[in-house]
Each structure stands twice: as C-alpha cells, then as structure tokens.
Write a structure and sequence with these properties.
alpha+beta; tt1808, chain A; 2 domains; six-stranded mixed sheet; five-stranded mixed sheet; disordered N terminus
Length: about 220
C-alpha cells in the first residue's frame, strides 16, 4: 500500500502488538480471533488489515458533526424499513483474496444484517466516509479498493468536511461510476434505498473553510 500508516496506540495484545505499518521490518501477525478478543478490551479502536493491526486517527468535531448528520438523516429516511444505518461503532468485515479486514467506516447501510449479537457487519449496500487530511489518502485508495469489492455494495459515498462536496461511486453493469456532487443545495439520489440525501442536511451546522484541505488525488481502479 502507498499510504503511510505509522500511528500506533495501546491495545491489549501481548507486548503491544499494534503494528507500525511504515518502518516495521518484521511486524507480528495477529489472528482474527486475537484481534476481535483484544478489541473488546481496547481503550481505542483499531483496524485489522490481513493480519496487522492499525490504530485509528482521532476525528475533528467538524468530522463528527457531518457523520452524525448523515446518520440522523438516513435513520429518518429509512425508519421502519429493512435497510438500516449503522455508525462507526460497528465494524465492517471484508473477506477477499484469502485475507480478512475489519474497518470502522463512519457509516454503513445494511439491508441483510448479521445477528444483533455480532460486533460487525458483512453486507452493506452503502458505505460513507468523511474525509480528513490525515485519512483521505487511505479512504480514497486502500479502503476504497476494499469497499468496492464487497458484492452487496451499491454505493460508496465520500464526504469532504471543509466544503459541501461529495464523491459518489455507484455500481453499474460496467463497474463503479464516479459522480461529484457540489453545493449546499445539491442532492444525492439513492435509488437502491428509495430515498435522496440532501447536502444541506448532511452539512447542517458546519463552518466551511475557503477551500478543501486535501492531498493530490490518487489513481484507482473502479471496475470491481
């Protein structure tokens, strides 16, 4: 992976086995069962990348406000329906190419939920991430590559936090089609859920900056 994942934090695995992804010549492999068991007791949340554990970065108040807005908006739109939104306390498991990953997306919408005793979901139809300067490379590269391989995924929605701008990746017969939605009055159509997201609802109460704080966009494949 091209992203630099050097952040670590305390985790109750033996000898602090959270892996420093950059500059660690011999990181120690952690099994899925070890990760899940340790995560139950962890003081901070950690992602699992094919055997390696990565601590999650802190989020700004602006980031969390947008995430909460999206959750509340979708919860209202989907009230009483089979498909329901889950916030970032719910892990997403992705099994592909013989490996397993666990992420904590900012939001996921699931129509075929795992049992309520489970701590993760497997089959979201939509995943939402709010971009931050420290995580946008990962969200637009590593995580996007993984999310787009989920068989049930119909849409990956990426929200800027400094300007009312959204990147929408929609599944089509020929792969995922990218759309940019710009402006506080714009709307995001979600036909697979039978509803529409309002940018004004997603960004309610947000103080914008003159420009988006971002890195150069990375290249990626969308034919998942």
């Amino acid at each position: 992976m091209s992203a630099d994942f050097s952040r670590t934090s305390a985790h109750p695995l033996r000898d602090n086995r959270v892996v420093e992804m950059a500059g660690a010549p011999n990181p120690e492999f952690v099994s899925v069962d070890e990760y899940l068991s340790a995560e139950e007791r962890a003081l901070t949340r950690n992602e699992y990348i094919d055997g390696w554990v990565r601590a999650m970065a802190d989020a700004s108040i602006r980031h969390n406000l947008i995430k909460i807005n999206a959750l509340v908006h979708l919860a209202q739109l989907l009230k009483g329906q089979r498909c329901q939104p889950y916030d970032s306390d719910t892990k997403l498991r992705i099994r592909r190419d013989g490996g397993t990953r666990f992420y904590y997306p900012d939001l996921q919408v699931v129509c075929d939920s795992n049992p309520q005793t489970s701590v993760f979901q497997d089959s979201p139809v939509m995943v939402v991430e709010v971009l931050s300067p420290s995580t946008r490379h990962c969200d637009l590269d590593e995580k996007m590559q993984a999310y787009l391989q989920i068989p049930t995924l119909a849409c990956y929605l990426v929200l800027e936090q400094h300007q009312p701008v959204a990147i929408v990746l929609r599944r089509t017969a020929g792969g995922f089609l990218r759309e940019c939605v710009d402006g506080i009055q714009a709307r995001i159509e979600l036909p697979f859920l039978g509803c529409t997201l309002s940018m004004s609802e997603l960004y309610e109460g947000i103080e914008f900056t003159p420009t988006c704080v971002q890195e150069p966009e990375v290249e990626y494949e969308t034919n998942a």
